[in-house]
Amino acid sequence: MKLFYFLRAEKTSLFLFILCLTATMSLAQSNQNFDCKILKNIKLKYTDNPDKTAYLTISGNKHVEYLESGKYFIKSDLEWLNDCEYNAKMTEITLPEFPFKAGEIMNVKFENIEGNFITGRAMVRGSSYPIKFEIIR
Predict the structure, then answer these.
(1) Which residues, 6+ apart, have CB-to-CB distance to 56 below 8 Å?
(2) pTM above 0.70?
(3) In sequence order, what are the residues at sequence separation of 6 or more whose Cβ sits closer than 8 angstroms to the Cβ of residue 116?
(4) How many domains does the chain have?
(5) Are residues 96 and 40 in the same domain?
(6) 24 shares its domain with 78
(7) Model confidence pLDDT, tens digit, residues 52-64
(8) Taking burial as the number of CB atoms within 10 A of a residue's CB, which of 14, 36, 88, 102 is the most buried?
(9) What is the per-residue pLDDT across 62-92, written as a single tens digit (0 to 9) for each?
């Protein structure tokens, strides 16, 4: 009988340990360790864009992407959902054959800021794309 209580106590302790460990890991993942407030006034460059002259600026609720040395641009109005996420309503697009039209909305969620790099996801028309930027200023 003593063995039964000992095993039962061991299982309970193990269960509580696993529960605490899981809760701690979950909290650690949900608590971001970066400050997205810098995104409200920033200049960024895509890390994977073949156009090395392309960059974008965010100034409050305005977003502008400059492409091919400023020959083309994409302008958007931003609705910030929180410090790390916004909906961008594309308002003016001069880039030929761009797959999206003025009026469409792209959701952008930044997931990590580490050093001079920002990563996240962009979603438009139900498709999700990874994004990675280098901070220029």
Answers:
(1) 43, 44, 45, 46, 63, 64, 65, 66, 133
(2) yes
(3) 134, 135
(4) 2
(5) yes
(6) no
(7) 999 999 999 999 9
(8) 88
(9) 999 999 999 999 999 999 999 999 999 999 9
Query: In which element (H, E) is residue 72 found?
Result: strand 72-82
d(Cα 110, Cα 121) in Å, to the nearest integer?
7
CB 124 within 8 A of CB 105: yes
Provide the CB-side half-sphere exposure for 123 (13 A, CA): 9
Give the residue numbers spanning the domain of 88: 36-135
- The contacts of residue 96 (CB under 8 Å, 6+ apart) are 72
72 Cβ contact list (under 8 Å, min separation 6): 66, 94, 95, 96
- Burial of residue 122 (number of CB atoms within 10 Å: 0-12, 13-18, 19+): middle
What residues are paired with 89 via a beta bridge? 77, 105
